[in-house]
Specification:
The protein has 13 helices and 18 strands. By secondary structure, it is α/β, with parallel strands linked by helices. The protein folds into two domains: 95 residues, Urease, subunit C, domain 1 (Roll), CATH 2.30.40; 298 residues, Alpha-Beta Barrel (TIM Barrel), CATH 3.20.20.
Length: 429
């Protein structure tokens, strides 16, 4: 049987590119990728494998270009409050910049579920969206963002944002989250360690991962990790493990005690990193938010400490994903994920290849432990990014992107006009 007769779906060969496969392996020149429908059917080196392509196979010559897996932003918020034009504009810029999947980390999930459906079936251009159902202590739900994401209902009493009390039926709460199509439970704030553990145990029993803040207040980072969270967000929250006393609530948290951190990791942080490595916990570091928060009343940690903690986690062997928790400027041609990757390299001591792995394989692992995307190999989703220059040598080479392929469908960069959706991206979310 020839390579082109395995099925009726259309086939495309992207021929003779330098392959950066997402695993951290050295780039491989002269590689070709056969895509059929949504998936990668074959990856091979030109001249080493002989087989026939069906006559109707489209062949795209990518000589001189570099190919890497589609990128994952492991921390976005598309709908707090929901604004369809804003969200679609952000998603469009993401996709035409190579971002083929995102984790939406708490929003009005009525809106996000619809966006997820629309992008999944290509009604609108955008990444695949994997979204959470949020759980937190009752006192958290005074937050104005909760009210904005629960309009028409009562915050804390909806399936996508649930207030957890000692008497809460956790099995029912998790089942309700599953019912809205959530990919995971996000444990956010204002819960003690025993409640974090109770939620996590039940979520895992029902087959759902838990994505948590690295400190849940008053639950410490150590308690969050002991509970079995699969991924934790915001690297500087780990620093609360070294504080004299962890704040009791998210909104009233004091800044971390940076004087506890010299040039070396605080002794109380090293066991956290060792446990994360041993348990395969993903660190969604979100370094760029600490630059964004500089000078803000919300700031609780400096960019310098965030970068040093992220570097220490990298050296300790922790799996680190690339998340942004925000958007680049409305007039920026590329999304915030590029800023995160450039900070990982420029501030946190990553090599360009390590940053690429954070945004490809590790981003996929942040979604689930057995992803079918994030690396380029036969059988996985055909999520591909082509660039003119080598991003494994210079992370800014991502800005030479010429083509994104998402689930087998091509999105040439030349089809994207950054000015066209500027007004929508300038709106308040």
């Amino acid at each position: 049987m020839s390579a082109g007769t395995a099925g009726a779906e259309p086939a495309t060969v992207y021929r003779n590119a330098t392959l950066i496969d997402g695993t951290g392996a050295a780039p491989k020149p002269g590689m070709s990728i056969l895509v059929r429908g949504e998936r990668i059917e074959r990856v091979w080196k030109e001249g080493e494998v002989a087989f026939k392509l069906a006559p109707d196979t489209q062949v795209v010559d990518m000589s001189g270009r570099f190919v890497l897996p589609g990128l994952t932003d492991s921390h976005e918020h598309l709908a707090t409050p929901p604004n369809r034009r804003f969200a679609e504009a952000q998603m469009k810029r993401d996709l035409y910049s190579g971002v083929t999947s995102i984790r939406d980390m708490a929003d009005d999930m009525r809106n996000v579920a619809d966006l997820s459906r629309a992008s999944r079936i290509a009604e609108i251009p955008g990444p695949d969206i994997y979204y959470v159902a949020l759980m937190a202590g009752p006192s958290f739900f005074e937050d104005k963002r909760v009210q904005a994401a629960s309009l028409g209902a009562k915050g804390g009493e909806v399936s996508w944002m649930q207030a957890i009390r000692p008497e809460t039926d956790i099995a029912l709460a998790v089942a309700q989250a599953r019912g809205i199509g959530a990919s995971a439970i996000k444990i956010y704030a204002n819960l003690p360690g025993e409640e974090v553990a109770r939620i996590t145990k039940e979520a895992h029993r029902q087959g759902m991962p838990v994505w948590a803040h690295a400190a849940v207040f008053p639950a410490t980072p150590g308690q969050v990790l002991d509970a079995g969270a699969d991924a934790v967000s915001h690297v500087c929250m780990l620093a609360y493990e070294a504080s004299d006393q962890i704040p009791g609530q998210y909104h009233n948290r004091a800044a971390v005690q940076e004087d506890r951190f010299g040039k070396d990791v605080n002794p109380k942080i090293a066991p956290l990193l060792a446990k994360m490595k041993a348990d395969g916990v993903i660190l969604d570091a979100t370094v760029r938010i600490y630059e964004q928060m500089k000078g803000s009343p919300r700031s609780y940690c400096s960019l310098d400490l965030a970068a040093r903690l992220t570097n220490q986690a990298l050296k300790a062997g922790v799996t680190i994903s690339a998340g942004t928790d925000g958007f680049s400027a409305p007039d920026a041609p590329f999304p915030a994920l590029y800023e995160e990757l450039e900070l990982l390299v420029g501030k946190a001591g990553f090599t360009p290849m390590q940053a690429l792995v954070a945004a490809t394989r590790n981003g996929a692992l942040a979604v689930r432990k057995d992803p079918d995307f994030g690396t380029i190999e036969a059988g996985k989703l055909a999520n591909l990014v082509f660039t003119d220059k080598d991003p494994s040598k210079d992370i800014r080479a991502l800005r030479t992107l010429t083509l994104t392929v998402k689930r087998g469908k091509a999105f040439p960069r030349t089809d994207f006009d950054p000015k066209a959706d500027l007004a929508a991206r300038s709106m308040d979310p």
